[in-house]
Specification:
This protein is mostly helical. The protein is 63% helix and 5% strand. The strands form five sheets. Strands 1-8 form a two-stranded parallel ribbon. A two-stranded antiparallel ribbon has the order 2-7. Helix 12 packs antiparallel against helix 16, helix 14 packs across helix 24 and helix 22 crosses helix 24.
Length: 619
């Protein structure tokens, strides 16, 4: 046993989830495998995000009017000798006029127009004397303005008149898909792995987008948009968790912020592609094919998250993935000298221990106590202990709501996700209110997010995640509320305040993913992010209702967004700071972090009250 101890102390060391950064460092944190994974993940999430932004173009409703029947057109040219230019001038006479507007939904019957005298079409004055004898019918076909968009789903499915509500249905279908996908995909990635769920979501986006182009049925199209929304949020969240788990702690900030720029890059790239291709079918086809092409090499060149495998007790697969990473990064590591210890009890079909150094076996290798818990539970004295028997069992989703600290933390995070998403989408969808070309405006809408995402890197590194999110929300809230006090006619001032509000909420968005992933333990991380993201999707839907309040007062939506942002800025201060910490792997780690690194405002106030009352009682 003495020789055994010496052999193990020289070459053998133990790795569990809490010090997983150690093995990542030895594998080469900047090696080919990790760089390749980050590049492919960035490209795939960017292309997937283009599906969300595409709604700004493919769901547009251009101007339209009732189409002049071909039979009537030919009759006017042949019998009344009207030229094409004269036809364009008098074509509105085929439809009734109400409140000085030509009807888009009703026209005079073809029989009435075919038998009217040619003088009806050639007279310059009032022709209502003729029209009172005409029969009014529904328009059968329409002519759409193609100066900006050659085709949209509005023109393809002719969602005119009493069908205009269906245009909103497709948007809500996508948002509903995002809502369910945020929770279900997060739960699935925790249960079945990051890589298979990410690939499944990517394939789902590509196939659903492709089918939506070729099946000429609006309700089928709406169903495909549901699947696209489901897949996009699933791919974004699962891919983000995958990268965080395969990145060493001191590189997570940069990796997180770079990943947050995927939507910015997607919006700017989409503006260019949509400008060049203004037919919605071709635009969606390009996105689908590009996503498939980029997904194929990722399928063959990527492996599962080794941290997740270790958390699940899949020690054999953990070793295989790490060996593949070492080979790709050209690192020589003797894995026979490494002992892997899962934090939670392994599954029944997995061995409890991997291979140690040859001949270096303990007497109690078959005992369950070899699976130890390195997480720290907090004692009543405020110190962390090693008694974490409860956390050795794999945690369930219900623990998020049953454990008081996890529940309080989740409620605050859910509101912050709701707030930043509500404000983000509320402002983004208002970009069409800016004067100028819609493609340029959409490009600027994405461009303003870049400095917000990149600037947050310095702030969260120097001042921490909690402070940065609070300041960003405060900036957004004050800027948007200030729009209430801007006099009419000061459009440039409104624009500056609008951009500051968008800047602040974009910075919040770029930090909230990282902050949330650093608060939840490993086996609840995907689920936690999924729950928060589901609340965020409610915010996206709510933003549409808030924007409708502009009919009451133009600045009212911005004031509401501002109040929402300021409340979020205050609540986030109740959570612990995670800057400089490792990812928590157990519930005990999270609870210890919560108690030791949050602002104890209430406890300090209580302590001050006790100390100030003591002298008075003595008197």
């Amino acid at each position: 046993m003495e020789q055994d101890h010496e052999a193990r102390s020289e070459g053998d060391y133990e790795i569990n989830e809490n010090d997983f950064d150690t093995i990542l460092e030895r594998l080469g944190r900047n090696g080919q495998y990790f760089i390749r994974s980050k590049i492919f993940m960035f490209i795939l999430v960017t292309v997937a995000a283009m599906n969300i932004g595409a709604s700004a173009f493919i769901d547009q409703s251009p101007a339209y009017e009732c189409q002049l029947p071909d039979q009537l057109r030919n009759n006017l040219i042949e019998k009344c000798n009207l030229s094409s230019s004269e036809l364009n001038e008098v074509k509105n006479r085929s439809c009734p006029i109400k409140n000085d507007e030509v009807s888009k939904c009703y026209s005079y019957s073809l029989d009435s127009l075919m038998h009217v005298n040619c003088s009806y079409w050639k007279e310059k004055g009032n022709v209502t004397v003729y029209q009172k004898y005409f029969d009014v019918v529904d328009c059968k076909s329409w002519v759409f303005d193609t100066s900006t968009y050659k085709s949209t789903i509005f023109t393809t499915f002719q969602l005119t008149c009493d069908k205009t509500w269906q245009l909103s249905l497709s948007k809500y279908a996508m948002l509903l898909g995002i809502f369910f996908g945020a929770f279900i995909a997060g739960h699935a990635s925790d249960s079945y792995g990051r890589r298979p769920i990410f690939l499944l979501m990517t394939a789902q986006i590509s196939i659903a987008t492709l089918l939506s182009v070729f099946v000429p049925n609006f309700y089928f199209y709406a169903a495909m948009r549901f699947l696209v929304g489901f897949g996009v949020i699933g791919a974004c969240e699962t891919g983000y968790v995958y990268l965080m788990e395969t990145t060493v702690s001191h590189q997570r900030i940069v990796t997180s912020q770079v990943m947050q720029t995927t939507f910015s890059v997607a919006f700017m790239l989409l503006a260019f592609v949509a400008y060049m291709e203004r037919t919605w079918q071709n635009l969606m086809l390009y996105i689908s094919i590009l996503l498939f092409i980029c997904g194929v090499p990722f399928f063959f060149l990527s492996g599962e998250s080794p941290r997740w495998l270790l958390s699940m007790g899949k020690l054999g697969r953990t070793r295989k993935v790490l060996e593949a990473i070492a080979k790709a990064n050209k690192k020589s590591i003797d894995f026979d000298n490494i002992k892997f210890l899962p934090l939670h009890k392994p599954t029944s079909d997995e061995p409890k221990l991997m291979v140690r150094e040859k001949g270096a076996l303990d007497d109690d290798d078959d005992d369950d106590d070899d699976v130890t818990d390195s997480g720290d539970a907090l004692t009543s004295s405020g110190e962390c202990s090693n008694d974490n028997d409860k956390d050795r069992v794999r945690p369930k989703t219900r623990d998020i709501f049953q454990r008081k600290i996890l529940r309080n933390m989740t409620l605050i995070l859910c509101y912050n996700w709701f707030a930043c998403t509500c404000i983000y989408y509320g402002l983004t969808l208002n970009v069409t209110n800016l004067t100028g070309d819609p493609y340029v405006n959409f490009f600027l809408n994405g461009l303003v997010e870049v400095p917000a995402n990149m600037g947050a890197i310095w702030l969260i590194t120097k001042y921490g995640r909690r402070f940065t999110i609070s300041v960003a929300n405060t900036l957004s809230g004050l800027s948007l509320i200030s729009m209430l006090f801007v006099p009419q006619g000061y459009k440039d001032v409104n624009l500056v305040l609008y951009l500051l509000g968008k800047f602040g909420t974009s910075a919040t968005f770029s930090c909230i993913y990282l902050y949330t992933s650093e608060l939840y333990p490993t086996l609840l991380r995907g689920n936690g992010i999924g729950i928060c993201s589901s609340c965020a999707r409610i915010g996206g839907v709510a933003s549409q209702a808030v924007n409708n309040l502009a009919g009451v007062e133009t600045s009212l939506p911005y004031v509401i967004y501002g109040v929402i942002a300021l409340l979020a800025a205050l609540l986030i201060l109740c959570l612990p700071e995670t800057n400089g910490t490792t990812l928590p792997d157990s519930i005990a780690d999270t609870e210890c972090l919560y108690r030791k690194r949050r602002i104890h405002i209430l406890s300090k106030l209580k302590y001050n009250q006790v100390t100030t009352r003591a002298p008075l009682s003595q008197q």
